[in-house]
Amino acid sequence: MSSLYSYDIHLPSQLDPNRKYPTIFTLHGKGSNEQDMFGVVGPLSEEFIIIGIRGDLPMSGGFQYYELKSLGNPLREQFDRSIEQLQAFVQYATDKYPVDPEKRYFLGFSQGAILSMSLALTLGNQLKGIVALNGYVPDFVKTEYALQSIEDVSVFISHGEYDSVFPVSIGHETAAYFQTRTSHSTFKTYPTDHGVSPDNQRDVLQWLREDAGISSKM
Questions:
Q1: Which end of the chain is more exposed for a tag (fewer CB within 10 A), N or C?
Q2: Residue 117 forms part of a structural domain
Q3: Does residue 1 form part of some domain?
Q4: What is the pLDDT of residues 162-190, one digit of tens each?
């Protein structure tokens, strides 16, 4: 099986050949690349395998996973294809690397957050959890996709209080939706625009360590 995406992988430097590792798959925002979100989760690189997945559509010197008809309105065919290919990528990486299938996470920003939440809803307990930074769930995912139970999936959602791309009200609506589907849901807002603040990063790192059962080294 070959990868459908280009990707950047960071393995712990003291890799134990007899061990499976918790793994974070990161998804970037529009116009960025597979290395972008490593800046958020890099401090976990000795405890987790970190795999940054590059969108396969060029955009403004970077990449995207799908195009938009308008803000908040993905091109459905491209979006569906991305979900299918990312699901296949999870299996590809699990077969190729020492990924613990019980501790697989997606972490995404903006377009990557949208995909991470949609993947949680379609993969269900095949994922341990997701981190969604400044995103939403498309209506067609909620109403037309075959949704899986996420009662055992851990969800961390955050949003900028002054987000000029997706208003913070979208973050509250998204969090409320997930709170009806899992009791393992955390929602936080930060006094930022469409980005990830140092406080946001700190909380994400702590949440991932705790959810994966890793003692903090911070």
A1: C
A2: yes
A3: no
A4: 999 999 999 999 999 999 999 999 999 99
Residue at 178 is within a domain: yes
Host domain of residue 150:
7-212
DSSP the chain: ---SS-EEEE--TT--TT--EEEEEEE--TTB-TTTTHHHHGGGTTTSEEEEE--SEEETTEEESS-EEETTEE-HHHHHHHHHHHHHHHHHHHHHS-EEEEEEEEEEETHHHHHHHHHHHHHGGGSSEEEEES----HHHHHHS-PPP-TT-EEEEEEETT-SSS-HHHHHHHHHHHHTT-SSEEEEEES-SSS--HHHHHHHHHHHHHHHT-----
For the entire predicted model, the pTM comes to 0.96
